[in-house]
Amino acid sequence: MSIDALSPGGKRRSGRLDIRNAVRSFNAVRAVDGVSFSAEPGKITGLIGPNGAGKTTLFNAVAGELGVDSGEIRLDDQRIDGLPPHKVFSKGLARTFQIPRPFGGMTVLENVMLVPPAQLGERFWNTWLRPGAVAREEKKNLEKARAIIEFCGLTKVERQLAGAISGGQQKLVELARALMADPAIILLDEPGAGVNPALLDTIVDRIVELNQRGMTFLVIEHNMDFIMSLCDKVVVMAAGKVIAEGLPEDVRADKSVVEAYLGGAAA
Ligand SMILES: Nc1ncnc2c1ncn2[C@@H]1O[C@H](COP(=O)(O)OP(=O)(O)OP(=O)(O)O)[C@@H](O)[C@H]1O
């Protein structure tokens, strides 16, 4: 199987994400304070802002790790706010973390294999009643995992423990795990942080190629070269609110954006 067989979101989902008036507080802090914007299908949307702007809190709310206090989050017109992470994931939204979270004691291949879309074998009666189907499904998953691992440039380390490879390679393992579920949209939390320049090029290449195949991305990143060269649109948050949204070059020249970065802890 080659990576060509992967279809972002399958045929049914476009990966459109709509966030409307999302609010999430931690005691007195309104970390996300009435945020509205959309990530258009097939596009790469950048989410930037000074430290503490609320970007990660918003990601956590979208991916189901945190609830919103109010507001709506829709994926392809279906409400996903209030759903637990595995439900959001199964609807076609995958995310990666700023600090990768692989199972360090398992190999890269095992980490990727942990995320098959529909694990027939997990239904215990299938192993008795439909052993052939289970074996075929496992073979298909293994082929898919291998194709994705190759696509992510990880073949050489597929037998190594995920805890023993570099931080940049772990970010690629996270991307590989996300791809196993054929998501329609992937949320990337600082894919470039702590990654050496050569691996960063690989990550950027993979994102571009997936995007050309129709994958939608929403990306938090402090690396401005990355944002400016990769994103179709940039949304800027500061103190929990969206303060600007538009084309990368317009956002960079926006006075309120410059002030937010100078006034806050510049990224
Ligand atoms: N679990 C939490 N409990 C209390 N306050 C929190 C929690 N998570 C985030 N916050 C606060 O919410 C605000 C937004 O934080 P968040 O991490 O979302 O910002 P960010 O834009 O992702 O920042 P960075 O770029 O540094 O990662 C900050 O004031 C932060 O201290």
TrEMBL record:
CDD domains: ABC_Mj1267_LivG_branched. Transmembrane segments: none annotated. Residues 17-264 form the ABC transporter domain. The keyword Transport applies. InterPro entries: AAA+_ATPase (IPR003593), ABC_AA/LPS_Transport (IPR051120), ABC_transporter-like_ATP-bd (IPR003439), ABC_transporter-like_CS (IPR017871), BCA_ABC_TP_C (IPR032823), P-loop_NTPase (IPR027417). The keyword Transport applies. PROSITE patterns: ABC_TRANSPORTER_1 (PS00211), ABC_TRANSPORTER_2 (PS50893). Pfam families: ABC_tran, BCA_ABC_TP_C. Keywords: ATP-binding, Nucleotide-binding, Transport. One of its GO terms (molecular function) is ATP binding. Belongs to the ABC transporter superfamily. PANTHER family: CONSERVED COMPONENT OF ABC TRANSPORTER FOR NATURAL AMINO ACIDS (PTHR45772:SF9), CONSERVED COMPONENT OF ABC TRANSPORTER FOR NATURAL AMINO ACIDS-RELATED (PTHR45772). This is ABC transporter ATP-binding protein. It comes from Neorhizobium turbinariae.
